[in-house]
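Box 3.1. Reading complex inputs
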Amino acid sequence: MRLESAQGLKQQLLKEVVEPFVVWASRLRGKTASTAVSGASAGSLSGRPIAFGVGARPLDTVPKIPRSVALGVARHQGEYKLAVRVQRPSLVESPLLQHLTREAKGEVDVRVIGRIDKRARARRAAAPGSILADAVIPWYQRNTRPLSIGASVGHVDVTAGTISAFVKRGGATYLLSNNHVLAKEDQARAGDRILQRAKYDGGRDPSERVARLRFWIKLKQTGANFVDAAIAEIDKGIAYDASRLRGLVHGEDRKLTGLGAAFTDEGELVFKIGRTTGATGGRVTAFDLDNVVVNYDKGNLRFDGQIEIEGVGNAAFSDGGDSGSLIVNARMEAAALLFAGGDSGGSNGRGLTYANPIHRVLKDLKATLLF
Amino acid sequence: MKRVMPLVTLEKAQAAKKTALRLFETVDCVVGVGITRLGGQYAVKVNLSGPVAPGTELPTEIDGVPVRVEVTGAIRPR
């Protein structure tokens, strides 16, 4: 296209599409349920939810402006194109990108640039009736009863993570997720309130309180950690479904069939449902991974004995907020607990995900899996 | 069809991984050492947070076990 057309299109799309998206995403940081819900309702294009992730972390540490998409003009063999610079690999396959590509009639130059230092300021709110206004919030970010594997959950002061599974310890029933989701990286106290949906998704306290934090494995700053795991006792009267894997494969439900073998080999196909990217498929790229260095708020922590997974196709296996997801193998057996990831690497370049073997998680928590 | 026996057993790869952990202990940007496969054979995988400093040589094989190096970037809790 001509330079003037590319510049005009860029301005139009910035105003109509990208800025409202950024406003929506940054509003989710707001701590009041009403703000988060009305903001989230702007987060969809053509009724399809945008997978937007923020790591499960204390609410007061979330950046005001999230990483999204930058627009510009690129020159290619004398012709101008809309330059789209994507700051999160999970946005590459998103409705936002599909919309931008459609509007530019395919004349786009898309590149993943990842994290950068300066962030654009966004002022404009989504106009009523704009393409962003008709929203469908996916089930895993909503209030979900009975409690389900894959749904949004978090400590009352943590953004959002994911319900992994349901477990027994002694005579009580617990929901499983990560320490950094339920126990705020060891900063929480036993008995603290757990919300479903999580605060970041609009969860209210006490009306959406579903459990109390009980046990967690402390995150060590020296030496090796093996799991990032915690369990919260489910409140009386709160129903849960320990076996349904909602929409796991091609949108169809599956049932959790039990505990998988302790050994997970390279190349195994796996699946998960997470609060941010929903149901995704992956492939194990490495196992017995030691000295995995993860940047927590409390510093760099080392993990040993971990499993590494890449997304299949052109998608990332996970993004921020998917922490706690239960990873199942092709036989629908529990294999691992998702806890960390990066934006680089993997054969599709969409980043790698790290997970604790579920056998070790259950052993350390003295818990048995329900299914 | 005749089945080809793997040249690198899992035990051999695990032993090489131990050596790799020791070798890479002093390399700052190593953020993971594990087991993967290359061409159907078990191999050692070394993850880096960024490119290694100029002049740093990483082995491509340890005791006959291939080594695959990948820049995975920084890893954060999700």
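In summary: The longest strand of chain A covers residues 278-290.
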